[in-house]
Design a protein that fits this description.
The protein is α/β, with parallel strands linked by helices. The chain is built from 21 helices and 23 strands.
């Protein structure tokens, strides 16, 4: 029986937005139909908003979905007729993908353009002038291999993203297998979505596989996806991550969950500079240079071995200088792992061009409903400034105002109240400003971990937190990224980096590992009332509210937690 128009859950609007009514019987089917080609903007309780963008449509095309199929999906579930302008726009944008194709022909890398008029247009585009070599035929250009990435960037900018079917060079063979049981003795159960994500990346036997980005929530086990991809590729691997703590986490996971021997795993950081079949490094060491005008000496790591796979952990944080070297690594398989493709610098198109298209994505709340990540309750607590600090704030420059508000001493009492009401909780306090955190450490008696904490002490504190010997930690921004503290269930954020949506998502992710007893994760963010910090907090929360999380607002002096 065909559903009546009233029962259909989509409203497609001419501004490229799609509204999804979430409570009808067809809502789940409609969401699954549009998710491959529409970008989720926000997902509160009743109406979810999606947006059609060139990038979202090109991501779908890279996965083999045609423009006509996208339009059909909208028409199948739309309550009202789909605007013809939207249908036309989708087919036009979808038709642009793959009209230029990178291939191998007689040993050369070539750009093959589907029609002569477009070939003429691209040959005259100034952005492509230095990236195309000899014109071999009216619609065929030789491409210098080292310009493969730069050409892909330029074609995205020109509105004609290339389908890259040129393949990859083979790295050194490295047989690697996931264990059935971890070295610790626990069974290793790779979750269905983790297997699906690794397969969507690798696509064995398909010339479209081997590069791309996997988007999964913090706490959903992106590292396991990386290990499964390494098993599928079976070649030497370079893993790039955010800090040395993340390096240690990757080392632990490799030794615990794969059959690799310890001497096959090398660390290339500020402390040790070794190269092995699997080498783990940090973005920080790669972007280090002795002087402002000097080159990046550690970029040589990319050529230290014939890597078969390069994994970019937290790819949304990929530093701009690394984009430059990544443009020259297009002959290597590349996997990006991230909780969000949101970049505060707006370089999402560069991730698409240089790492690859989005290959797999699961909404956060879907995994929460399935029990793979913890249910989270988010609370914003607004604290007034005392009269003296309010006057200091009023007289300060705008940038200084934010810090004055962020370091509001009245936040200490709120933190203490939350701690007292959750004595059995594994608890993290996290913030931006070291002086503020040092004051909290003195007041509360909790260990403090900052960027200056020696790595052995840092690792010791994290290990003791995991065993329960230490129940609370105070963290600077080192706690934002790749921190393996699965037992943490309460996080108090006392200050942050202006309006960073990335940071808010990363911090919530610190407590999203599922709890053994099914308990909720509790995320508190404390802001100074009627200040710029309150305004920035709204922006920080955007990504999470778009994922379906709601923030409860409390005013200090009421229920403190």
């Amino acid at each position: 029986m065909i559903a009546s128009d009233a029962a259909l859950p989509l409203i497609v609007q001419s501004d490229r937005t799609i509204l999804l009514e979430t409570h009808g019987p067809l809502a789940a089917a409609a969401r699954d139909a549009i998710a491959p080609f529409a970008e989720l903007v926000k997902s509160p309780e009743h109406i979810h908003t999606y947006r059609l963008t060139p990038l979202s449509i090109w991501n779908a095309r890279s996965a083999g979905l045609g423009g006509a199929a996208m339009v059909d999906a909208l028409r199948r579930y739309a309550k009202y007729p789909v605007p013809e302008s939207i249908a036309t726009e989708i087919e036009e944008l979808a038709g642009r993908y793959g009209r230029a194709t990178l291939r191998r022909r007689d040993g050369d890398l070539v750009l093959e353009v589907r029609d002569l008029s477009l070939a003429e247009e691209l040959s005259r585009d100034k952005r492509l002038a230095d990236l195309l070599a000899a014109r071999l035929a009216p619609t065929l250009f030789r491409v210098p291999p080292e310009r493969r990435g730069l050409l892909k960037q330029a074609l995205v900018a020109a509105g004609y993203p290339a389908e890259d079917l040129a393949g990859y060079v083979a790295g050194e063979r490295l047989p690697i297998r996931l264990r059935e049981r971890c070295a610790s003795g626990a069974p290793l159960n790779v979750r269905p979505y983790q297997r699906e994500a690794a397969e969507a990346f690798h696509q064995r036997g398909s010339e479209r596989g081997g590069s791309g980005v996997i988007v999964l929530p913090c706490g959903a086990g992106k590292t396991i996806v990386g290990l499964a991809a390494m098993e599928a590729v079976g070649e030497t691997t370079l893993v790039l991550c955010t800090n040395r703590t993340a390096v240690k986490q990757w080392q632990r996971e490799l030794l615990d969950k794969t059959d690799l021997a310890a001497d096959a795993i090398a660390e290339y950081t500020g402390e040790r500079k070794e190269v092995g079949p699997v080498t783990i490094s940090t973005y920080q060491i790669l972007t280090h240079r002795p002087g402002r005008d000097e080159e990046f000496p550690h970029f040589a790591l990319f050529n230290a071995r014939p890597w078969g796979l390069i994994i970019y952990d937290e790819v949304h944080l990929l530093p701009a200088p690394v984009f430059r070297i990544t443009a020259g690594l297009q002959a290597r398989r590349r996997l990006g792992l991230t909780a969000t493709l949101v970049r505060e610098d707006g370089r999402e198109e560069d991730v698409f061009a240089l790492i690859g298209p989005k290959r797999y994505d699961v909404p956060w709340r879907d995994l929460e409903r399935q029990g793979w990540i913890a249910e989270a309750v988010c609370t914003e607590i607004r604290v007034p400034l005392d009269p003296a600090r309010r006057m200091e704030y009023a007289l300060a420059e705008k940038r200084a105002q934010f810090r004055i508000a962020a370091e509001n001493p009245a936040k200490t009492d709120v933190v203490r109240s939350i701690v007292e009401r959750a004595p059995a909780s594994r608890l993290l306090v996290i913030g931006e400003y070291i002086a503020q955190l040092e004051g909290l450490a003195r007041t509360l008696g909790f260990p403090l971990v900052t960027g200056k904490t020696p790595q052995p002490l840092r690792e010791d504190l994290f290990a003791r937190f995991r065993t329960g010997e230490v129940g609370q930690l105070i963290l600077s921004r080192v706690g934002n990224f790749s921190l393996d503290l699965p037992e943490a269930e309460t996080l108090i954020q006392v200050s942050g980096t202006f309006g960073s949506r990335q940071e808010e998502a990363q911090r919530l992710g610190r407590i999203l590992r599922p709890k053994a007893d099914g308990r909720q994760a509790r995320f508190f963010t404390i802001v100074s009332r009627e200040t710029r910090e309150e305004d920035f907090a709204r922006h920080r929360q955007l990504f999470l509210t778009e994922q379906g999380y709601a923030y409860r607002i409390e005013i200090a002096g009421g229920d403190g937690g």
